[in-house]
UniProtKB/TrEMBL annotation:
Keyword Nucleotidyltransferase tagged: no
Single GO molecular function: ATP binding
Keyword field contains Nucleotide-binding: yes
Coiled-coil positions: none
Top-level taxonomic group: Archaea
Gene Ontology BP, a term: phosphate ion transmembrane transport
Domain ABC transporter stretches: 22-273
Any Pfam family hit: ABC_tran
Entry protein name: ABC transporter-related protein
GO terms under cellular component: membrane
Alphabetic keyword roster: ATP-binding, Cell membrane, Membrane, Nucleotide-binding, Transport
Length: 286
């Protein structure tokens, strides 16, 4: 493994960055009369990692999509810094959504360089007038220097995931773990105030998992809130400030990882963290 792939210890951050406080208040979401999430209340404060655990089909991804404003609650309210985005105009809601970065379970990259994949996250969030100015500046700089330029925020995000020196690689040449790291860097480049992560390390090897966990922790250090769903109980115990257990769309309990994993208050949580299956035997195939 090349040394240049390693995580850099001191990426530079903007000390003036702000962070968003997220609050879900009695949020319910249903489709065709079936509730997927029911009366969930959960907060994510700036500088905090909240991890959602639960079996497949518990509603974790739906809850994340509600938090990231991809879906509108059937009932209840999602508040961003005390504001209900769904009570605002479409343009105002879009501005709030641009302050949130989301990383999905599987990386989806464009057929271009690593840097351009990361840079696009910032460019599409800028007003058209700013995009045009940036384009003219890039073309002018390339004409003068004879080589492409890379935005400082793009390099900063790539440094955070240990890929700064790979900025000019073709994305198609990346391993699965490297592609997910680029996807994470793309979410970081616009400097979102809240990160929403849907199993970002699933199916990754231990090294790539460690790199992304380090990047998540760095995001917390600079004051961002992080809402993360995972099936990895050790990861939830390792990186979380608070852990939320979701079962059949219901938020069973929330607490610090040491309590959730060592002294849960609800028997359903205790069974889950012990590794017991939560199912009705009558539901199993014959």
């Amino acid at each position: 493994m090349h040394e240049k792939d390693d995580v850099h210890e001191n990426p530079t951050f903007d000390p003036d960055e702000t962070a968003m406080n997220l609050a879900l208040e009695d949020v319910t979401y249903g489709v065709d009369g079936t509730e997927i999430v029911t009366d969930v209340s959960l907060e994510v404060e700036s500088g905090e990692i909240v991890t959602i655990i639960g079996p497949s089909g518990a509603g974790k991804t739906t809850l994340l999509r509600l938090a990231a404003l991809f879906e509108r609650p059937t009932d209840g309210v999602v508040r961003c810094d005390g504001t209900d985005p769904w009570a605002r105009s479409r343009d105002e809601r879009l501005e709030i959504r641009r302050r949130i970065g989301m990383v999905f379970q599987r990386a989806s990259l464009f057929e271009t360089t690593v840097a351009r994949n990361v840079d696009i996250g910032g460019r599409i969030r800028r007003p058209w007038s700013q995009r045009l100015r940036d384009f003219v500046q890039r073309v002018g700089t390339r004409w003068i220097r004879g080589s492409p330029t890379v935005d400082d925020r793009t390099l900063e995000a790539l440094e955070l995931v240990g890929l700064r020196d790979e900025w000019d690689r073709d994305a198609g040449s990346l391993s699965g773990g490297e592609a997910q790291r680029v996807s994470f860097a793309r979410a970081l480049a616009p400097r979102p105030e809240l990160l929403v992560l849907d199993e970002p390390t699933s199916d990754l090897d231990p090294r790539n998992t460690a790199i992304l966990e380090r990047a998540i922790d760095r995001a917390r250090e600079r004051g961002h809130g992080v809402l993360l769903a995972t099936h990895d109980m050790h990861q939830a115990e390792r990186i979380s400030d608070r852990v939320a257990f979701l079962l059949e769309g219901e938020l069973v309990e929330v607490g610090p990882p040491e309590r959730i994993f060592n002294a849960p208050r609800d028997e359903r949580t205790a069974r889950f963290v012990r590794g017991d299956l939560l199912y009705d035997e009558n539901e199993l195939p014959a």
